[in-house]
Amino acid sequence: MAPQLTVVGSINLDLVAKVERLPRAGETLTGATLERIPGGKGANQAVAAARLGADVRMVGCVGTDANARDALGGLREADVELALREVDAPTGIAIILVASDGENQIVVVPGANEQVGSFSAPGNVLCQLEIPDAAIREARLQAQWLCVNAAPARPLVVDADLVVANRYEADVVGDHPLLALTLGEEGAVLLEHGREVARARPPRVDAVDGTAAGDAFTSCLAISLLEGRDREEALRRACAAGAIAASRFGAQPSLPTADEVDAILRA
What distance in Å separates the CA atoms of residue 125 and residue 148, rounded to the nearest whole number? Predict the structure, then answer.
């Protein structure tokens, strides 16, 4: 039976400019190309979980503007159940610069995501920090199992069953009973009460765009654990999912299927 997951999180439309290199402070670059791609950490993780075989429900907010349709396109294509509110605010926007070496810069305009709340989220729940603290508290009160991806970093207002964070985010959120610490090209470590219980490294890939690599990692780790896989295998699969996403352009278009994760681990 497929694991069931409710994602409570952000929904954005990504405006992605591909540039040869990232600009320096005060510098203007030209010659970029622009694409409109569905994004938002919540929506990215919902799409990722669905492609990995989970039965996924997405809780979030969008505006009544034209951007909402484009922002929801990836969720609909992935057959994610939508439990959304339309609010009197613009749909969230992310402005992303992606350089030829895969490095990026991201600025998020939250818009409707600041009004996420008043929802039903029982069972297994995944949240990120592109939504208000009140929504995270509401999810904790309802969820039987809660995973929080601590990005963008700020102190957590709940105790989660699993926290996913990179080095910088971990410094902000502090210790948690089960923490997945992502280390970029070095892979990831799973810490239980501060003690290492699993470690994995990603397969080698050519980096193209790291925009949704963390989202692929987070969803794959959560789904792998909910499927009953042991921690080492779950962490190894999560690293593989993140690597695949980093090797492709765009947020949701880069997210791998379970078969693709299996294939790269067999290679």
Answer: 8
Residues 6+ apart with CB under 8 A from 149: 41, 45, 126, 127, 128, 129, 163, 164, 165, 214, 215, 218
**175 pLDDT tier (thresholds 50, 70, 90):** confident
Better-scored residue on pLDDT, 210 or 45: 45
pTM of this structure: 0.94
Give the active site residue among 159, 215, 230, 259. 215
Sign of the dihedral defined by the CA atoms of residues 151, 157, 162, 167, in that order: positive
DSSP 227: T
215 is catalytic: yes
Contact between residue 203 and residue 265 where contact means Cβ atoms under 8 Å apart: yes
Cα gap 25→80, rounded to integer Å: 40
pLDDT in tens, 25-36: 999 999 999 999
Count helices and strands (H / E) in the chain. Answer: 8, 13
